[in-house]
D-lactate dehydrogenase (cytochrome)
Amino acid sequence: MSTKQAIKEIHRELGEDSISTDDEDLKMHGYSEWSSINIDRLPVAVAFPNSTEEVAAIARVCHKYKVPMIPYSGGSSVEGHFSAPFGGISVDFLNMSDIVAFHPEDMDIVVQPSVSWMELNETIKSSGLFFPVDPGPPVCGSISVMDAEQLLITITQAKIGGMIATNCSGTNAVRYGTMKDWIVNLTIVLPDGRIIKTRKRPRKSSAGYNLNGLFTGSEGTLGFVTEATLKLASIPQKTGVGVATFPTMRDAANAATQIVRQGIPVGAVEILDDVQMDVINKMGATGRAWKELPTLFFKFSGTKVGVHDNIEDVRKIVYDNQGSDLEVEKDQAKQAVLWSARKEALWSMLCMRESGNEVWSTDVAVPLSRLPDLVEISKQDLENLGLFGSMLGHVGDGNFHETILFNGATERDLVSKCVHDMVHRAIEMEGTCTGEHGIGLGKKEFMEQEVGEGSLSVMRGIKLSLDPFWLMNPGKIFDPQEL
Ligand SMILES: Cc1cc2nc3c(=O)[nH]c(=O)nc-3n(C[C@H](O)[C@H](O)[C@H](O)COP(=O)(O)OP(=O)(O)OC[C@H]3O[C@@H](n4cnc5c(N)ncnc54)[C@H](O)[C@@H]3O)c2cc1C
């Protein structure tokens, strides 16, 4: 009843097109094909605000009627982040996709939450600047692909609001850091409709609590991000993309960690296992046949001399770890094709699904020195599982992913055990249950083991002080103590 009244009131305050209860809209905002976890319940409505003030109006109404609110940007998150276990209203930022101000001289840009990182980079490329955080969805701009049954999969793109909320990263993180490192300030609508701005516009500040850090990674459980000022980096003078194969995943992981430990400033170092290389071959999108062996992809960037030296240093480490000759592409167009093999990896896996297949995609991260051990044991477990699964990851950060296809409840249980084993092992190695995807619904159960009850109770305290009625994206990251 109260949700119905809230919908009516939002409709009345913001106009006819501001809120939808269309079945397709509800499904799209409560379910996703690439999520490791989906639930039966959907949101009751989807609101489409046009401005910070409209988001505040929605929050005030939901606060008044005690209706859950679930922020939604690109919908590319993978742990059931935007699902609606308690119903409520999904708030989609679709109509808030403007670049509000660009300050090339200050190397920053002010954006609304529904700007995608790829659009952003396309728009500003002539300025010589770029935004370096690059979570998955595709680099070359295609937006739909066919799966094994020739069904169209529409590819979604990560957008700034969701990227902040998940503290995402991507292939460039080893060089440029993660989302939290690129935020100057945020405009936030709190669950009761108050609007705050975390900081002014300096590139650094020591003034008081770091509210940027509080809202970044909070997965929409503390407030809505309605505007963000982001730092930008200079487009490097020279780039190169390199590829090398290895006899085993351990050799590849050893090479990657040595490269990082020696301080060679690679732009990215990514690991893909033999299965993933096979999938890329089957998709045929890169126009060449790859060796189906553990493979490292590298990005090099910097000055002309620097890139040359880095390539030679990496070549030596690859060789010392039983790697093949390092193949390097310096032509920019061909680099994009080579790199797309890495960037399309998860979509390629999705395209391998046959009737009834679901996908479980997960990530963990460990201190660098533990990475070769974890990669080796996890690869063995994946092979023992007997299902179709691949490994890849941002190994330069000690972060890697598994993507496994399964069919039915029995196989889901097997995959779940395999993922649980990997996560527990990572935490025992002083690592984390997620290096970049976040907790959502899917990884809540690991929070206590990872951070301990003391830290969890501080998080609950922060949540209660900002959202006493537990209305913002309820059911994510952790539950109230009494549940
Ligand atoms: C093929 C593929 C590859 C991927 N590769 C990577 C990768 O390399 N690195 C990586 O980090 N992730 C990766 N991901 C995961 C995903 O892209 C990231 O988590 C991304 O940051 C999610 O952004 P989004 O806009 O899609 O967010 P959404 O899915 O819309 O939302 C994610 C979370 O943020 C909250 N939220 C959304 N908008 C707002 C807002 N304006 N204010 C407050 N909260 C908000 C939502 O409530 C939800 O909890 C990949 C996903 C796919 C499908």
Notes: The chain has 15 helices and 20 strands.
